[in-house]
Amino acid sequence: MRKRTIKSIAVMTGGGDCPGLNAVIRAVTKTATNKFGLEVWGIEDGYLGLIEDRMHVLTYNDVSNILTVGGTILGSSNVVNPFKYPLTAGKTPRLAPGPVPGAKPCPQVAGLMRDVSDKCIETLHSHGIDALICIGGDGTMASAAGFAKKGVNVIGVPKTIDNDLYGTDITFGFDTAVTTATEALDKIHTTASSHHRVMIVEVMGRYAGWIALHAGVASGSDCLLLPEIPYRLDKICDFVLGRSKRGRRFSIIVAAEGAKEKGGEMVVAKKLPFSPDPIRLGGVANVLAAKINERTGLDCREVVLGHVQRGGTPTPFDRVLATKFGHAAIELLMKGVRGQLVVLKDGKISSIRLSKVAGRIRAVPKNHRLIKAALAVGTSFGV
Ligand code: F6P
User: Fold this and answer.
1) pTM for this structure?
2) What is the position in ligand 1's atom list of the atom closest to the CA of 275?
3) Above 90 in pLDDT, residue 95?
4) Is the distance from the beta carbon of residue 159 to the nearest atom of ligand 1 less than 6 Å?
5) Residue 42 contacts by C-beta under 8 Å, 6 or more apart in sequence?
6) Best exposed site among 64, 263, 330, 378 by fewest CB in 10 Å?
7) Is the pLDDT of residue 53 over 70?
8) 78 in ligand 1 pocket by Cβ < 6 Å?
9) Which residues of 194-215 are buried (b: 16+ CB within 10 A; e: fewer)?
10) How far, in Å, from the CA of 257 to the mean position of ligand 1?
11) Distance between CA 246 and CA 251 in Å, rounded?
């Protein structure tokens, strides 16, 4: 695939959806067709569509009027890995694969997987597709790196509300998720104040606390619990009681879903054994509400924002970033760049080798400027 001139490309969206995916699909398709006269194929439901040969040609009209629309017109899947695909998948469609290359396999599914990546490459060849644009997070990029290693012309585009993709300073979707979470926190503020309650608001982010940190600071929340800074329950209780004694009779605690007590474990909601990342976190807000109430006697309520953070129209920032990323992906491809992830680094669009990204995540550094600023204005991190 490497030596041919690029005439036809395919684009896919993998992993959990997020606002801005359609903006990238639009930028990729319009740049590829308008500027370079390429044919563009859209692969349905992420890698699942590639495995099952479900794809169609995308026209200019298909991608008109989608810039502001959340989700993805192509569909997505966050449980499919073409390098570890369940043996039973043909019989039980939509059930899917296991750990990304390099990740620890789930013991109960190890040995039940097969590598269907060659079949995917044959499918691309059968449609005359010369290159693949993979829009996704770390799971999608791990497989993209695998395809690049096998000679496929791949360019990755970094997506996720979690903002945890290694190699880029920001992913599109994050700004919208922060905006959604901040709006919710602002609303929770008034009801917390009226009822003199401790409100524990759980936000997404997996193993990184970027959403909790940014939405927490933006909303002026009182205590932020990040996976990167294990909390101490006694410190949280002292903090909310202290506020109460000073006449601040309510507190807002923002808990990242991956927040954990010092020496404790993250709260797991469920395990999906065939997924590239089998763990689904969730429930920390419930745990904290019960414990804080028991220790302080204060009235506590939990709110789990959940998938609302992945929905809705992208913010102007995300629309612009997604457009820049999509455009850059095609420009790089046509310049002969291969096996790279488009990134935003120090304010500039550039790229990094996909193999460097695979298997890593970008956590919040403990000495991050925003943590310092939050501490300076009296925000607690539960330590
Ligand atoms: O990676 C995006 C994300 O929304 C995480 O923040 C969250 O932990 C996970 O996906 C939820 O996955 P699912 O859609 O499978 O419940």
Assistant:
1) 0.94
2) 15
3) no
4) no
5) 10, 11, 12, 25, 29, 55, 56, 57, 58, 62, 73, 74
6) 263
7) yes
8) yes
9) eeebbbbbbbbbbbbbbbbbbb
10) 10
11) 12
